[in-house]
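Hey L., structure's done. Input below.
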Amino acid sequence: MSAYSPVVEEGLERMLAMVRGDFDLSWMDSNPTGWGHRVQPGASGLGLRDVDTGAYGVVPEYGSSHGSMAPRGCFVPADTPSLGMYDLNEKATVWSDNAAMLYDEAVTRQWNSVTDVPWHKLQKLPDDIEKAVCQMCTNFTEVEFVAGDMPAKWLCHINHDFHEVKLFLATQIMDEARHMDVFRKRALANGGGLLMASPGNEALLAAILQAPNYTTASALMHIFGEGFILTLFRAGEFLAPTEVEKTIFRLCMQDEARHVAYGVKHLQYFVARHPEMMEEIHHILGLGEEAIFRLTLEPQTLEPRAILAGKGVENIQLGMTRLAFLYNKQITEYLQRLKIAGIDRLPRMKIPAELPALGPEV
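Output:
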């Protein structure tokens, strides 16, 4: 009696047949229309868009029904098993025309928190400034990786025919890992430490992770959450007391810009094809607006930023005025991104479009 299972026995018999010269080789002629594909590298190398040309660049409106991980453009045998999980099969539910471009940019602009941040330039800061930096970094450490968790939740549902989107979202997960890592490092690197978590942060993160479908989750995270953070990072110069924080904001900003760019173009693509979903998108944006407004008013969110904007606790009122200006800018850019996507949000916004000056004039 054989010690092997029938499957292994069959494999051994097949190997012996090949030793005798009995080969199949049908795979060599399995995809005649896809053979002979040749590409030319672009000026900056061989990008995703350079190889996805001709028949290989055709993205179907609905992904292949075989439900496997077979790459778009190959021959798929009839007996290929379905994995039973890739149920985001409509292109409009995930697609963005800039996904391939953003992926190419992401893989060529990776950075790391080990050697790309000038940690040696950290210097002793006044206690109020150091505590404000550490509290701000605690907030960012808490919130940043939701932008990794959200695409991770949906990746295993996206049909592999939309690999441009899947590849881009994978880079986003890595981006957010770096962001969580770098802000936690800054909180621990200069004689301070992590301070207070934020219930408001958790409410906003829950709205993103519990969104009923991918598009509403993307709108809430990529355009709303990351859009507000992107504006904040762009203003990081006046919040950063040393070259270390300035570098961190600058590096994170380039990553966030990609994520926001994907979200805007995805929402634009989706609403053009599914205008009937507009009410659901407005509803989820309203929830996000109220959540982030509550978050903004939390002392552990607002006060450290005001201290940094005013350059000290004694100038916190001046910092409040500067933060009001920053809030107004966040709202303006948020509304503009939605306008590009085809959504007029201003008449239905749940929070003020502008804040009055909250302290003395700058």
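Residues 91-348 form a domain with the Ribonucleotide Reductase, subunit A fold (CATH 1.10.620.20). The radius of gyration is 25 Å.

-- N.
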